[in-house]
Amino acid sequence: MLRFRHIVWVRFNKIEMNIEYRVNQTISLGQFVDILRNSTLGKRRPVDDNECMKGMIENSNLIVTAWVGEGLIGIARSVTDFHYACYLSDLAVHNKYQKMGIGKKLQSLTKDQLGPKCKLILISAPDANSYYKHIGFTNNQRCWVLNPDQSIAPLPESPAI
Q1: CATH (one of 3.90.550.10, 3.30.230.10, 3.30.70.2740, 3.40.630.30) for 4-134
Q2: What is the pTM of this model?
């Protein structure tokens, strides 16, 4: 498991703080749910389903977090093979700390953990769709989603021989 700490001093609206970024720092279920609820992402995640939320955090293999003191203020939660593809499934920054570059730094540190040929892939929140182009992402129209209540369509019957 990777471990990495990076401390950044930030001045924003005359407020000074140290933001510490950590790679694969263990976080609790409560911390994970709280950061989602206190960001715009909480509306689109099953934050009231503890079993699902626990599985999401326990089965991720790359988590980059941002901290002020011992308070979690941001998370980039990914599933990756580190060589070809990394799916950044949750990018959340606490509402009080948005517009400070924390989300961009979380993405940059996530990318830094990946191999040189590995793609960083995400599905944008509707309100953030225009954000990703200006930081270097390419829009891909080929993403498809199969919702939990949907099934794979059956194959057509093969003709009798």
Answers
A1: 3.40.630.30
A2: 0.85
